[in-house]
Batch of 2 targets.
Target 1
Amino acid sequence: MPSPGSGGDDSAATVASLRRVVEHQAELLRREDEVNRILVQTVLAGGSLDDLCEALVTLFPGVALVTTTDGRTVAKAGSEESLAHVMGLECFDRTGRLIVEDEPVGVRAAGVTKSERAMVRIVAGTSDHGLLAIFTPGRALTTTDVHGLERAAAVAALAITKDQAVSAVEGKYRAEFLRDTLVGRVGSPTEAVAHAASLGWDLDRRMVVVVAETDEDDAHTARTSDEVRSLQDRFVRAWVQAVRTREPKAPVAGFSQEVVALMPAPCGGDGEHDAVMRSVGEMVKIVRGDGGGGRRSFSTGVSRPVDSVADIPRAYSEALRAVAVGRQMQGESAVMHFDGLGIYRLLSLIPDTADLRAFVDEALGALATDDQASYADLRQTLQVLLDTNLNVAETARLLFFHYNTLRYRIAKLEQMLGPFTTDPQLRLTLALALRIRQMRGV
């Protein structure tokens, strides 16, 4: 039989248990009220994404991040020590991109009760703007924390939508000015420099024009117009961010299928070309995907340096030519400086590729085709011979041929093409034909 006092003990235990439940629920409500209060204050103050992240780290001590849909960080908050720790986690690649493909979000994240990180999507209507993430090293996140993060994602969506609306207006105005600059319709150089300064741009320095053009022809594509517009917007945003991160005062804007930037160039010197191409190459690498951007194949052209706004239209034409010819020389995803075009610069001016094809056929004869497997080897032998100025010993070394083997090949080539070893005009013709054959689309 239960002891006389056991009923009282059970009642006390029940009351204590209920009290703990009530206290826990009260703590959850207090926590949710605190989250709502801070988020409302952030909204009313017109807070940016950085402000939102700062507010989140007061609620969830650690690190808060906002990323694009493909993982590029656009806002963050947290101590330097915490940021360094978080960026070293396995969910980030070597460039600092959050590997969103492997991270659970939304409902899946809510079910992870022992995780020290949680992520939710930032959605406005049907538009996915990225991810909002919190990292709390040493503290497991609860379902309630994830619900608070979802509320914060709504604030992030408001901030992003507001920024996009403002940026759209500013971007259109800036793009119109840059377009006028590229075609020489901005008045005097002094007026252009002053107007650019009012937009936060610096045109009063030595510059190169960089053009990044998508390789896909949007006028002839199976993609829907919405998909094309979305891809182009992402392409432009990736380039704008890459340029502004490196040079905040560099003019940059996107147009139908291209992005144009006026990047500063060193003040002359032997290393100017290499420095410019190294800088452009780093931005191209970021946009292509190492930093999570782009997602479209594109080719890039770089002009010669200019020292005056008046010379920008010429530099723009050079950059466009570098894009077009670079794509012919290297295929898609080419990166080409105008000075690197060489003879291709002249060949690209011939509008009828049928004429170029006929020239190749007449000059190379059967070697213009791949009817026999040996023709490709013979073309390579001819190319190296011409590149080494008919230095037989050097050609044999480069091709790993015995001297007599190369002599036999030279004799065979002269039987097919004529006495190119003694006729400089024929050598020039053959060299041009080989270059033309390498061009895409010919």
Note: Residues 107-113 have pLDDT under 50 and may be disordered.
Target 2
Amino acid sequence: MSSPSRRDVLRAAAVLAAAGTLGACGKSGNDGAGADGVVTIDLWHGQVDTGKKAIDALVNEFNKTHPKIKVVGGGGGVTADSMLQKVTAGLAAGSFPDIAYIFGSDLASMTRSPQVADLTSAVDLKDYWPAARDAVTVQGKVRAMPALVDSLCVVYNKKLFAAAGVPVPKAGWTWDDFIATAQKLTNPGKGVFGTGWPGVGDEDTVWRLWPMIWDLGGDVVSADGKTVGFDKVGEQALGTLDRLRTDKSLYVDPKPGGEQLYQVFLGGRMGMVATGPWQLPDVIDKGLDYGVAPLPSYSGKPLTISGPDTWTVFDNGSAKVKAATEFLTWLTNPQQDVRWDIQGGSLPLTTASAALPEWKKHATSTTGLQVFVDSLETARVRPTITAYPKISQQLGQAIVAVLLGKKSPADALKDCVEQSNSILAVPN
């Protein structure tokens, strides 16, 4: 997720130095196998720091136990935030990896390439969380393996709640409760905000609104895919942001990636922030006395969003596709997955991983972590359609216009719907 993004816990600001990756690309035989029968798999993972350390250790273990497959985990020479551009350039040049770490929101566009493998008959995803399965399914076919799963919840500062005499949030709370709580927490004299929201119009700005849309009965697009599905309910969702703005309880972050938003929270000057498990290490490092609650809703029923990432396989020959699939099946097996989750700072990909004693011990020792896992039961994902990025851009502009008081929710939504419907009218 480039500026610091929503997964900074897995990626530092530094960009990986380009490792020997391109040289391993392409077919070494008609089916991708070498003359010695060993299949070399080029993995572009884009991870740095803790994430890189975790994936490197797993790759080394796989190579030791699978002598006929050699995974080269050079990383790709870029962070995961820049992976789409790197892979797209590689596809255009005819030199691309066997596996790449691709964000779920980019997968549909990526599958336009015939080089993206179809894994429908090769993998079994029944134990994965619904959000993880949906994120790798494009037009009814499995086009990648889940790599990371997360969820949005509300992390709150207990000290600020106590100072304001406000009870901490509990499951089942509503957006009206959230607004009232944010207002009570706000203290202009001390520079304390009730909550915050990214205000640059990027995907970090947008994806937080979708649970509100879904809870109101709307969707990203209509059932037939010809129009947006939030034209009837978008005004109410945007109106919630407008109420927070007019109450002056909302900090609007002007920088990409929520950098200042989290700095304000970590500095003890924000009562609540909607975020994911990737933020907990920083909260813990700061020594904040915090808690975690599920997202509020209009209905009082649990609902959140997940933004899964994927391991996308590319066709450099049948032997390479088979070997890549074998590696990913091993990597996402609960015994390996739980190590990746704990060491890399992620959530379990499957219900089986979440049930392992190792994960339960880890979750018990980290305040609020299990709330994020439990939220996966009701998490939804953005649709895997090629038009999504353009629709997101339009909604991002609408959200920013409301956050800055430049447009009313009704006017902002009207413009967004008109532009988005024009986008959907053009065949993809």
Note: The CA atoms of residues 148 and 309 lie 5 Å apart.
